[in-house]
Write a structure and sequence with these properties.
18 helices, about 475 residues, flat, mainly alpha
Length: about 475
């Protein structure tokens, strides 16, 4: 059911969203090397000497633009806090915004110190980034709580009871399978392909490619790149196959998965296990041809998804999506390790982005198919704690993802392309999440899901392009 909101609610939400993205723009641009270098071109504050030449000096223009944006965002924070007090928002919304407003002058003071000392380095840089992220977090928290108050009903906060299975006996609809010949061979071949979950491959391989790019920029050898991609594809295929094997009984109870190959007995369980083991062996061989660390991480990724997530987490805890995000984060470490034979800080930061993005991404799918997950007995967040909680967590984890991207920019050599891509992509994702709160429909949840995919894909591409251009 679509929530009823007033024009004043919509205006306040829009103000909070714009303020949050503005605050994030300041944080991530301030964290990039480009802005740090720009600060050294303008050692006076609040204005720059020689500011009239900004158009001829891009670095000076960046410094001036950053300070002008800080002034605008400060006004937005003040307006949001004042409006929250005037409209009698809840205590937590008011105090979140008042905290952001109270910290803002301190943040400006740290920025002035950084500018006059030639850049945000050492303790000043850490404090500047930390306060910026705290301000941003306060605004995002206020936005999430405000939306929750505006749109959530009492029913949205209740656990979801499992609906009846798709069929009376709780099994999948029978499927017409050719008795033999080319038709059956084609169907079986497609079944084996489906078990590998090919739709996951492009994004996870892009994560590994971004990890390699962070480690070596454009200097990755074709052999290392090819073997890493091959090992990654085979590892993802093995994980997906074992997932199909282990969840075949549950798949029969869920509409979305009732036609999976093992759920309809198109592929024998024994054959699927052997297929998964072959993919695992091929993945290990590809990674071992690079180095042992990549092979260990690859095997860990398979075990994490197939055993830790599928067997331990998914059916037993509401935190399955959060903790399970480690499986998707491991390709970042694999990509870095393939190039350097070690695990570096930028790789860990990229893995953190993926880990925090996973709940923001997957809770949308859990909302779209909440009845199916309830039917399968999985304790997904919207099933156990209600839809309102899941919608709120989408925004919270999106904020955490954006914060992690800002941290990544501080520990790597990424430039403005990465920063602006994260801002624009994050803004689109945030707006899709806001619409999800308003509409509360399956289509809105799927749009937010696709917006999350687009955000991560564009950010990973920006990492590859940014590092190659250095």
């Amino acid at each position: 059911m679509t929530a009823e909101t007033t024009p004043e609610d919509d205006s306040f939400t829009s103000l909070l969203a714009v303020t949050a993205i503005g605050a994030y723009l300041l944080v991530i641009l301030g964290a990039t090397n480009a802005v740090a270098e720009a600060a050294s071109t303008c050692s006076t504050w609040p204005v720059c000497q020689g500011a009239l030449g900004a158009l001829e000096e891009p670095a000076l223009a960046i410094a001036l633009g950053h300070r002008a944006a800080a002034l605008v965002v400060g006004g937005l924070v003040l307006a949001a806090a004042a409006l929250a007090v005037r409209r009698s928002s809840s205590r937590r919304v008011r105090w979140s915004l008042l905290l952001a407003l109270g910290l803002y002058p301190i943040q400006i003071g740290l920025g002035a110190i950084a500018a006059t000392s030639g850049g945000a380095t050492g303790i000043v840089g850490v404090l500047h980034l930390g306060l910026g992220l705290t301000i941003f977090g306060g605004i995002m928290a206020a936005l999430a709580w405000s939306l929750d108050e505006q749109t959530a009903s009492a029913a949205d906060r209740e656990p979801l009871e499992a609906p009846e299975p798709a069929n009376a006996d709780g099994t999948a609809e029978p499927r017409e399978i050719p008795p033999g010949g080319l038709g059956r061979a084609k169907l079986v071949a497609l079944a084996y392909l489906r078990m590998t979950k090919p739709r996951l491959m492009w994004l996870l391989c892009l994560v590994a490619a971004a990890g390699m790019a962070l480690a070596a920029g454009a200097g990755v050898s074709p052999r290392t790149f090819g073997l890493t991609m091959l090992g990654g594809v085979l590892a993802i295929g093995a994980s997906g196959t074992f997932n199909n094997v282990l969840e075949r009984d549950v798949d029969r109870r869920m509409n979305r998965t009732a036609d999976r190959p093992l759920a309809v007995d198109l592929v024998p369980v024994r054959n699927a296990i052997l297929f998964g083991l072959m993919l695992t062996a091929g993945s290990l061989a590809a990674f071992l041809a690079i180095n042992r660390l990549a092979a260990v991480l690859g095997l860990t990724a398979i075990a994490y998804y197939s055993v830790i997530y599928t067997v331990v987490l998914k059916p037993n805890t509401v935190q399955n999506t959060v903790i399970g995000g480690g499986a998707g984060a491991l390709p970042a470490l694999i990509g870095w390790a393939a190039v350097t034979n070690e695990i570096g800080l930028p790789a860990l930061a990229l893995a953190g982005v993926i880990f925090l993005w996973t709940p923001a991404h997957f809770y949308n799918l859990a909302l779209a198919y909440k009845e199916d997950y309830a039917r399968g007995g999985f304790p997904m967040l919207p099933v156990v704690r209600g839809e309102a909680t899941a919608r709120r967590h989408v925004i919270w984890y999106l904020g955490a993802t954006l914060a992690a991207a800002a941290v990544l920019s501080t520990v790597s050599s990424l430039g403005p392309l990465f920063a602006l891509t994260s801002v624009v992509g994050g803004g689109v994702f945030l707006w899709a999440a806001i619409v999800l709160h308003r509409e509360q429909t399956e289509s809105a949840a799927l749009r937010s899901f696709h917006a999350s995919n687009a955000y991560l894909g564009l950010v990973l591409l920006a990492i590859i392009v940014d590092t190659a251009a250095l």
